[in-house]
Specification:
Blueprint (H helix, E strand, L loop, with lengths): L1 H19 L32 H13 L3 H6 L3 H6 L2 H15 L1 E13 L3 E12 L4 E13 L2 E5 L14 E7 L6 E2 L5 E14 L8 H12 L3 H11 L4 E8 H10 L4 E11 L6 H4 L2 E3 L2 H9 L7 E3 L2 H5 L1 H4 L4 E7 L5 E8 L6 E4 L3 H11 L4 E7 L5 E7 L41 H11 L8 E3 L2 E2 L7 E2 L1 H11 L13 E3 L1 H7 L2 H13 L6 H8 L24 H8 L9 H13 L2 E3 L4 E5 L7 E2 L4 E4 L4 H16 L6 H4 L6 E8 L7 E8 L2 H4 L4 E7 L5 H18 L32
């Protein structure tokens, strides 16, 4: 029976097979009963890999490191974005990081747990704070898969776990008093002091005490009483006239008299003595601006402090601000302190001692007071800056909110905030001939005795005739009906190279520039020598912002001729000039100028002490340097020297070079740069001095007398002579309007 059953099954299968292939008699028949079936096509189904949750968390935290809160917000889940706006989201992070004083942070991924729809990534974050040390937490970030992209399920615990549930961070700050700034002898320049801002309310003036009012204010503020009288008369009743500021000690006499019309505001703040010594270089403080707030909060500031905004005040901020302290706490929504995350104590601020001599600085500012220009005085063997003045200057006390009536003078069109000593860029005029002479000597094509007949004209340029400065003097004499018969009106005649510098003969130096460029294919010699003298690069003074200036290689013979006398594209700063004059005086070493003598903490040894730093050396053979120095001495001592007349009677040996530079706008700039040679006799370090007066005329007439005043102040304590244009610190007898008059082209 079992056999019969299997026969039946086989027959049924055979029938079905024949049916599927066209019947028993078809092609298949029983012969295809066990044929291999046709395989099915592969399924059209792919496997989509899960997104990288770890990469998403890394991207989020890296955006946080960049304060890219918008990028972080874009990575939030739909649900998270519905619960917080971008503004609130950004604010939560900013406030937390600022309150922590989180200067930076780092993170490391620890682990991740994935499912198709959700992920959990654990990471360790370490905040490096300015006030309370490192804060480290292990945090789990939860993510949701939205259309194949991991999105962050945000809550405040991602910043710190303690911030979940509406908790906030609070920092209790401890802020030390700002440090003081002193001169080299310990005399105060800036301090935190009880001060008074003084002014005049004109309608309240007691006429019986008007003379007392103007005399005492003049004494306190450094004004001529007649000037104050004129201001009162010019404005009439109903006006407030801001005068100046003073410490309680300085103002005690005036406060005891209290003449009618006197108005004062008491405040305790940053006080700048003497209405500001070297204000552009010392700098000033101001409240932290909204743009600066985040950065300063990360450094541990509470945001209400005043910080250095320029000069030494800015450079020495870390020292002058002291070390802030604080206690970081977590506070519940009801105000209760939940936990203390860290704390630190404040430390007193350090004091800054400058290289400046207060007396020299005072007279330097007086010398430039009624001009636009700059003065730099520095030791030749060290780079110490003894005085640095930029005119016009300003009273940094005006930045205090108590003195807002005085703020208007800071927007003067003469740019009092510009530090002309370090940022002013000028053509150097004939002072540049020092460099051209150096290039000529180094080339070997000229010696100190190479002769040249210096006449009125230089005619080697194909399209123009250039005139010596003596020619201009002659034309001025002719214009008023006089004959050209003085030493400054007649051509200089046959000169050696040294005498060419002493007379400041323009044609001689035009000849050098033209000859090097045209005949010797050495057109870059002068430019390269200028760069070796430190021009076209910053001096390296760290404490004060400075400009680089400009020295270009001449492209045409006209460029070469102009450059040879410091015109054309030549741009220099007074600080650069003082630096290379010091190098000439000391034998060839270019020192980095410095204005800070030391940083002194309350207790212990100084944190920083002045140390001379040599930058480079002049590219001059020793014998050529001596030739140059001899010529610079001739400028001041030879009867035909361009500086001799206004230095006659000076009891100290000095050397230097006059310069009169085309300004391109009105009268020429007046230059003089030189140095002293008296250390052996006086035991005082020799100094280099650079002086520029903008749009005024000839260097010999205006810059040389200021140079002399600085030399006399250095050795005697005050200026001993009176320039032709009037006493130092007083308006010139015949002030020349800035920007007006005719160019005195290429004068010495």
């Amino acid at each position: 029976m079992k056999v019969l059953r299997w026969i039946n099954i086989i027959l049924v299968l055979a029938f079905l097979s024949s049916c599927s292939s066209g019947g028993i008699g078809g092609n298949g028949g029983f012969g295809n009963l066990f044929a291999t079936p046709t395989p099915l096509p592969p399924p059209l189904v792919g496997i989509t890999p899960a997104p990288d949750a770890q990469a998403a968390v890394t991207k989020y935290l890296e955006a946080m490191q960049k304060d890219d809160y918008a990028g972080m917000y874009d990575m939030l889940s739909t649900l998270s974005r519905s619960g917080i706006t971008l503004e609130d989201f950004s604010s939560r992070y900013k406030n937390a990081l600022n309150t922590m004083s989180a200067a930076s942070f780092e993170f490391a991924i620890l682990s991740n747990l994935l499912s198709p729809a959700n992920a959990e990534v654990a990471y360790r974050i370490t905040y490096h704070t300015s006030l309370v040390g490192d804060i480290q937490r292990d945090i789990v970030m939860r993510l949701a898969n939205e259309a194949g992209t991991w999105k962050v399920q945000w809550d405040a615990g991602l910043i710190l776990p303690e911030l979940s549930g509406g908790n906030q961070l609070v920092m209790e700050y401890s802020v030390p008093s700002r440090g003081d700034i002193y001169d080299k002898d310990g005399l105060p320049i800036v301090s935190q002091a009880e001060a008074f801002a003084f002014g005049i309310q004109t309608e309240q003036i007691d006429e019986d005490l008007r003379g007392t009012l103007t005399a005492e204010l003049g004494r306190l503020c450094g004004f001529d009483p007649e000037f104050i009288e004129d201001q009162i008369d010019a404005n009439g009743p109903g006006w407030y006239l801001p005068m100046c500021e003073g410490t309680r000690e300085e103002a005690q006499r005036l406060l005891s008299i209290k003449p009618g019309g006197l108005v004062w505001t008491e405040y305790k703040s940053r006080y700048y003595f003497g209405t500001g010594l070297a204000p552009q270089s010392v700098g000033f403080t101001q409240p932290i601006s909204p743009e600066q707030l985040d950065a300063y909060r990360r450094l541990g500031y509470n945001g209400s402090e005043k910080v250095g905004q320029a000069g030494v005040e800015k450079w020495a901020e870390d020292y002058l601000a002291g070390k802030h302290g604080g206690t970081l706490s977590v506070v519940a929504p009801d105000g209760a302190i939940i936990a203390t995350l860290g704390q630190s104590n404040s430390k007193p601020a350090d004091s800054v001692y400058l290289t400046l001599d207060s007396n020299m600085q005072k007279y330097a500012q007086q010398a430039i007071e009624f001009f636009r220009g700059a003065i730099v005085v520095m030791e030749v063997d060290t780079g110490r800056i003894i005085a640095i003045a930029s005119g016009p200057d300003f009273d940094p006390n005006a930045f205090d909110p108590a003195n807002t009536p005085n703020y208007g003078n800071l927007s003067d069109f003469n740019e009092p905030l510009l530090n002309r000593a370090t940022q002013g860029q000028y053509p150097l005029g004939s002072v540049f001939k020092i460099i051209t002479m150096s290039a000529a000597l180094q080339s070997g094509l000229w010696t100190k005795d190479t002769p040249y007949d210096c006449q009125y004209e230089f005619t080697k340029l194909p399209d123009r005739v250039l005139h010596d400065w003596t020619w201009q003097h002659c034309q001025d004499a002719i214009a008023v009906g006089e004959a050209c018969n003085s030493s400054t009106e007649l051509p200089s005649g046959l000169l050696t190279l040294q005498e060419g510098l002493m007379r400041s003969c323009n044609p001689y130096f035009w000849e050098i520039g033209w000859d090097l460029f045209t005949n010797w294919n050495r057109g870059s010699d002068v430019a390269n020598m200028a760069r070796a003298f430190g021009l076209a690069s910053k001096t390296g003074i760290a404490e004060v912002e400075e400009a680089s200036g400009q020295i270009l290689d001449p492209v045409t013979d006209i460029d070469a001729v102009n450059q040879a006398i410091g015109q054309g594209d030549v741009q220099v700063t007074p600080l650069q000039v003082a630096t290379f004059m010091a190098a000439i005086a000391n034998g060839g070493t270019l020192y980095r100028p410095q204005i800070v003598e030391r940083i002194q903490p309350v207790d212990g040894d100084p944190l920083l002490v002045f140390k001379p730093e040599a930058r480079s050396t002049l590219n001059l053979r020793s014998e050529n340097l001596e030739i140059l120095k001899e010529a610079l001495l001739m400028v001041t001592q030879d009867s035909r020297g361009t500086a001799r007349f206004n230095l006659r009677g000076l009891q100290f040996d000095v050397a230097g070079k006059t310069g009169t530079a085309e300004s391109g706008n009105g009268l020429s700039h007046a230059w003089f740069a030189g140095y002293t040679l008296n250390e052996a006799n006086t035991k005082l370090p020799d100094i280099a001095i650079a002086v520029i007066v903008e749009n005024i005329g000839e260097g010999s007439e205006y810059a040389v007398p200021i140079f002399r005043a600085m030399v006399e102040t250095y050795y005697y304590g005050s200026p001993q002579s009176v320039p032709a244009y009037g006493p130092i610190g007083q308006p010139p007898y015949t002030p020349t309007p800035f920007g007006g008059g005719q160019d005195n082209n290429n004068q010495p």
